[in-house]
Amino acid sequence: MKLTKREAFLLKLAFVVALLAASYYFVIAPQLDKLAATGVDLLAKSQEVEMVKAEINSLPQLDEEIKALHEGIRITSERFYPDLIQKKLIVILNDLLVNSGVQADSINFSEPGAVESADSGNSNNAQAEGTGSGNSAGIGNPQIRSMSVQYPILGTYEQVMDLIKRIEGLNRMIVIKNLQLAESTGGILSGAISLDFYSMEKVSADSKDEDYLDWPYDSPKGVDNPFRFTPSNEPAEQEESEQTEGNESEQAEESEQAEGNETQTP
Predict the structure, then answer these.
(1) Angstrom distance (rounded) from CA 229 to CA 168
(2) How many C-alpha atoms does 241 have within 13 Å on its Cβ side?
(3) How many other β-carbons are positioned within 10 Å of the β-carbon of residue 137?
(4) Which of 88, 119, 211, 212 is least enclosed by beta carbons within 10 angstroms?
(5) Residue 148 is inside which H or E element, if any?
(6) How far apart are CA 49 and CA 118, in angstroms?
(7) What's the pLDDT tens digit per position in 171-208?
(8) What average pLDDT score do residues 41-62 get?
(9) Are 189 and 183 within 8 A, CB to CB?
(10) Which residues pair with 108 in a beta bridge?
(11) CA-to-CA distance for 87 and 92, rounded, in angstroms?
């Protein structure tokens, strides 16, 4: 069968259209899809870049906020003792008593213990459940410890008030838990006072804590054993006592003979 020129042209045109369609669906369309996906990725990356730039620009502000937080934490924690050292607290209490004139014949210390708060309880519950947020929440909770001190006091009203003012003047986390006073003779007050000392792990070093942690009393003072046994010279003491008794008896005999001679002379 012989095709005419018009039919041959139409056949060639159909073949070209089919070739172009196949090229579009199998070559161009996938590339267009890839181009569209690349555009979406480019937009997302551009947004991420803008976010990173914004975060970089906010770094100075974050540094200022961090400094402000550290300063707030330092101001809040500087009233706490860095650690509860009993021998240092004894020296502090002794200075308070001496400077105020209040007398105390004994001081009783309790064992230091941890102070539990609501936040620490929640973090412990979260840790018990095995959640990761509980572990991260427990890191930021500082450990606060307390120690109670009780001692009897004796002094005038002015001396007791001066003692309380000196305790407040230390600017430390010291709570006057209990104060009992009763009037004695001669305008003297007798009673007892109970104090709670608090310590906290410090985030940053404080010059005020250096004076507290410094302990210049390492060198030994006095004698090692005040109740050391000292042997006595009992035999020598007995001989001396016997000699003195013998001398006294001889003097008594001589005095009796002298009295007898005086009576015989008339």
Answers:
(1) 46
(2) 6
(3) 17
(4) 211
(5) strand 144-155
(6) 41
(7) 889 999 999 999 888 889 999 999 999 998 877 666 67
(8) 89
(9) yes
(10) 150
(11) 9
Residue with tokens 């929440």: 137
**Local confidence band at 266 (pLDDT 50, 70, 90 cut-offs):** very low
Q: Which residues are CB-neighbours of 29 under 8 A, at least 6 positions away?
A: none
Instruction: Please give the structure tokens belonging to residue 160.
Output: 């007791």
What are the structural domain ranges in the chain? 1-77, 86-117+139-213
Q: Are the CB atoms for 69 and 140 separated by under 8 Å?
A: no
Q: Are 191 and 153 in contact (CB under 8 A)?
A: yes
Q: Dihedrals φ, ψ of 231, to 5°? A: -65, 140
Positions of E strands within 83-233: 108-109, 113-114, 144-155, 174-183, 189-200
Separation between Cα atoms, residue 132 and residue 135, nearest integer Å: 5
Q: What are phi and psi of 33, to 5 degrees?
A: -65, -45
The pTM is what? 0.55
Distance CA 74, CA 176 (A): 24
Report the alpha-carbon distance of residue 49 to residue 58 in Å, rounded.
14
Residue 135, pLDDT score:
44
Q: Are 145 and 86 in contact (CB under 8 A)?
A: no
Query: Topology of 86-117+139-213 in CATH?
Result: Alpha-Beta Plaits (3.30.70)
